[in-house]
Write a structure and sequence with these properties.
Blueprint: H1 2-10, E1 35-47, E2 67-84, E3 87-104, H2 114-122, E4 129-137, E5 146-147, E6 176-178, E7 186-195, E8 198-207, E9 223-230, E10 235-246, E11 252-265, H3 270-274, H4 280-287, H5 292-299, H6 305-310, H7 312-325, H8 332-339, H9 344-357, H10 363-368, H11 375-381, E12 383-386, E13 389-392, E14 399-401, E15 404-406, H12 408-414, E16 437-438
Parallel strand pairs: 5-16
Antiparallel strand pairs: 1-2, 1-11, 2-3, 3-4, 6-7, 7-8, 8-9, 9-10, 10-11, 12-13, 14-15
Helix pairs in contact: 4-7, 5-7, 7-9, 7-12, 9-11
């Protein structure tokens, strides 16, 4: 009897089984200052030896035939900056955990030039660091489009999130619902499992590959999603997403990604996150979606000037945040470093802030900046005198996305991309997933008047 009592005391709520016949409301329990850490493992296999997804229309794929298999790992940090009216402002930063492991026939192909081989091999490498943000409901529904460009060139990742959308109504084992993610999975509660000492409900669902190939006959269960929701901790401890699809060259691509919850922390301060290179970009990405109070808190972080000289990507995001929120330029010492940056985007944003301030002390720096080697930098620095003040004549580059045009200053503030051409791995208008993801991208080259580059902000709908 004593053993039974001891066992009952040790087995508290987290290890209590979930009754299969009881409907449970699935909701996230997150608050400002929460910090969740996940291990992300991504596998990708590409078979370009034959055309896939074209039926009998063509035997060989477009492009250079090759075969590859890669394994990639990131440590994913999710931060909750703010909670208002049951809305969660979250930022995510994924940092490479170990070197990419890639085996490809490109290494031994004699039919390729050295430049073509290097170009194709670069497409197989993951990004060392990537950040994105969104505003979520307590059930995980995204109120803004997720970014299509991710830590790896992949279409499976369009629908891979640490916090997947949960069912709107209470559910029990056997219940069905349709998710609100980009691929619109048909989900069901398949059973219960124990993960990390907790009893968790396993959700499973399938979606058609037609989400990516609308004009071809597609497998109705080409993508499979599984995740485990644990009612005691109100957390999803594991997410698995797997699928096969043809890429733009009609190579056969098979991918699998797994997110596993490794740690949960509470009550952390954004200032602490800003001091870490492994967290800073994710926090700034979220701050760009927040209100003026969130932006002001980020810009007022003690020691922020050191970021301008040590982290170029974060410096761009900080400058964009300051520009959009109408903040004052950085301190003179930091501004001198920014104007001498190797990154033309940093220099351009720095001058926009400097010129808008209208201070007489900015005049010499604006005059010296008129010969910048970058086109956009020169345009931002082309100041003209109006009375006793100096005002920057800022010509924002034109960008095009889904027939809409957006100002580059807002593009900088909402998502700062690195200027690398995306090629053809973007959503297409005919794809059902198109309206639920966003490609935010800005190229530093001068745009043609006859044809704007097919880039940038794809909004919902």
């Amino acid at each position: 009897m004593l053993a039974v009592v001891i066992l009952a005391l040790l087995c508290t709520a987290p290890c209590a089984p979930v009754p299969a016949d009881t409907a449970v409301a699935w909701r996230y329990d997150l608050r400002a200052g929460d910090h969740l850490v996940y291990n992300e493992v991504f596998r990708q296999e590409i078979d370009g030896s034959a055309a896939y997804g074209l039926g009998n229309a063509r035997d060989k794929p477009f492009g250079t035939p090759f075969i590859s298999a890669g394994r990639y790992e990131w440590t994913s940090h999710l931060f909750v900056l703010n909670t208002t009216n049951e809305r969660l402002l979250v930022g995510v930063q994924r940092n490479r955990a170990r070197d990419d492991s890639i085996a490809t026939s490109l290494d031994t192909s004699s039919a390729l030039s050295a430049s073509d081989r290097a170009r194709l091999q670069s497409r197989l490498r993951g990004r060392a660091r990537y950040a994105q943000a969104n505003v979520l409901t307590l059930s995980g529904d995204a109120l803004k489009p997720w970014a299509a460009r991710r830590e790896m060139r992949s279409k499976i990742l369009w629908d891979a999130f640490e916090l997947p959308p949960l069912p709107q109504n209470p559910v029990r084992v056997g219940d069905h619902w349709q998710s609100t993610d980009p691929f619109a999975f048909e989900m069901r509660v398949a059973g219960t499992d124990t993960l990390g000492g907790e009893s968790c409900l396993r959700a499973e669902g399938t979606a058609s590959a037609a989400a990516l190939i609308p004009r071809q006959v597609a497998d109705s269960s080409g993508f499979v999603l599984k995740y485990w929701y644990c009612p005691a901790s109100h957390a999803v401890r594991r997410v698995e997403l797997e699928g096969t699809y043809p890429d733009v060259n009609y190579y056969k691509v098979h991918e699998r990604v797994v997110f596993e919850l490794a740690d949960r922390k509470h009550g952390e301060a954004p200032a602490e996150w800003m001091r870490s290179a492994d967290a800073r970009q994710g926090v700034l990405a979220a701050a760009a979606l927040g209100d003026s109070s969130v932006a002001a808190a980020m810009l007022a972080t003690q020691g922020i000037d050191s970021v301008y000289s040590t982290d170029t990507a974060s410096a761009r995001m900080l400058l964009a945040l300051a520009y959009r929120s109408g903040a004052s330029p950085p301190a003179p010492a930091a501004m001198t470093q920014l104007l001498a940056s190797d990154n033309p985007r940093v220099r351009t944003l720095a001058v926009r802030l400097l010129a808008r301030g209208g201070a007489a002390s900015a005049r010499p720096q604006l005059e010296r900046a008129a010969t910048d080697s970058d086109y956009f930098g020169r345009r931002a620095r082309a100041a003209r005198r109006l009375g006793d003040s100096w005002v920057a004549r800022v010509e924002r580059p034109r960008v095009r996305a889904a027939g809409l045009r957006a100002r580059a200053s807002r593009a900088h503030a909402t998502r700062i991309a690195d200027g690398t051409p995306l090629g053809h791995d973007l959503p297409r208008h005919g794809e059902p997933a198109f309206s639920r993801v966003a490609v935010r991208h800005l190229r530093p080259r001068r745009l043609s008047r006859r044809r704007a580059l097919p880039t940038h902000h794809l909004s919902r709908g």
